[in-house]
Specification:
Blueprint lengths: L8 H7 E9 L3 E8 L5 E8 L7 H13 L8 E6 L3 E7 L6 H7 L5 H20 L12 E3 L8 E3 L25 H4 L7 H16 L9 H9 L15 H10 L10 H6 L1 H4 L10
Antiparallel strand pairs: 1-2, 2-3, 3-5, 4-5, 6-7
Bound molecules: adenosine-5'-diphosphate (ADP) and magnesium ion.
Adenosine-5'-diphosphate (ADP) binds next to strand 1, strand 2, strand 3 and strand 5.
Keywords: ATP-binding, Kinase, Nucleotide-binding, Serine/threonine-protein kinase, Transferase
GO molecular function: ATP binding; protein serine/threonine kinase activity
Organism: Lepisosteus oculatus
């Protein structure tokens, strides 16, 4: 066993009934499960250890950190189980669905709504950064609504383990690196700043419905990202506030040293003030 606190397979099937698949990633799937004694529903992320080969020590470290994470906008890790081939992360079940699905279903969407989502993401990321954790895989699919209700908070579902996945996660395994910061693509050393870049990409998408960097050809996409080559195209951005554009331009900043930190982003008027407009942008 690679995790100090990992429990064995006999334990997991004794405790939980595994039910349908809720989602899947490159090396893992997330299953609905029910606690046999309390009937409580949870989400269990099942990871093939094979995908983490050679990184067991790193994983052990990471799991020690994951156990410490307690934040209202990050899905809680409740328990860990392990077999020789699989790792099971038991998480609190969230039921509100993915961020973009929900936005598409809504008749009305405003800058204020987007600002509210981004503030919660920044709060969570700031917390992670204070713990010394770089998330590295922030994207809309990893942002879930806690409940189906209108006033539901947002939670980050995919915490940290991304670092453990195959190196190829960047170039091959995960498809297009639409959210990946320039310094990551150029294989320079990177830090917390990559998460702020991703928040910039997510903010951009929330406001116009398409990504800032896009090309069917990966090489061309890389070039766009490395040069931070994007635009606030007309007519899509015509009605978006200057404040929103200012906010995004500080996040989609090529030089990580000049890029906003979480603290700076949280203090920007588009997040902390009343600069985000209440006009429908759908
Ligand atoms: P991966 O590393 O495979 O991307 P994620 O943690 O992002 O794993 O989960 C994949 C999908 O599973 C999510 O996009 C979501 O649809 C679903 N999911 C993940 N965690 C939960 C959860 N706690 N509750 C409900 N659904 C979840
Ligand atoms: Mg994910």
């Amino acid at each position: 066993l690679i995790t100090e606190h990992g429990k064995t397979m006999e334990d997991i099937s004794a405790v939980y009934d595994l039910k349908e698949k809720l989602g899947e990633g490159s090396f893992s799937e997330v299953r609905l499960a029910q606690d046999k004694s309390s009937q409580k529903l949870v989400a269990i992320k099942c990871i093939q250890k094979r995908a983490l080969k050679g990184k067991e020590a790193m994983l052990e470290n990471e799991i020690a950190v994951l156990r410490k994470i307690q934040h209202g906008n990050i899905v809680a890790l409740e328990d860990i189980f392990e077999t020789p081939s699989q790792l099971y992360l038991v998480m609190t079940l969230v039921t509100g669905g993915e961020l973009l699905d929900r936005i598409l279903e809504r008749g009305m969407y405003t800058e204020r709504d987007a600002s509210h989502v981004i503030r919660q993401v920044l709060d969570a990321v700031q917390y992670l950064h204070e713990l010394g954790i770089v998330h590295r895989d922030l994207k809309p699919e990893n942002l879930l609504y806690d409940t189906p209700f209108e006033d539901s908070k947002i939670v980050i579902s995919d915490f940290g383990l991304s670092k453990m996945e195959e190196q190829g996660a960047l170039s091959t395994a995960c498809g297009t690196p639409a959210y990946v910061a320039p310094e990551l693509l150029e294989q320079k050393t990177y830090g917390k700043e990559v998460d702020l870049w991703a928040v910039g990409v997510i903010s951009y998408i929330l406001l116009c419905g398409y990504p800032p960097f896009y090309d069917e050809n990966d090489t061309k996409l890389y070039q766009q990202i490395v040069k931070a080559e994007y635009e606030f195209d007309s007519p899509y951005w015509d009605d978006i506030s200057e404040s929103a554009k200012d906010f995004i331009s500080h996040l989609l900043q090529r030089d990580p040293e000049k890029r906003f930190t979480c603290e700076q982003a949280l203090r920007h008027p588009w997040i902390s003030g009343s600069a985000a407009l209440e006009k429908n942008i759908h």
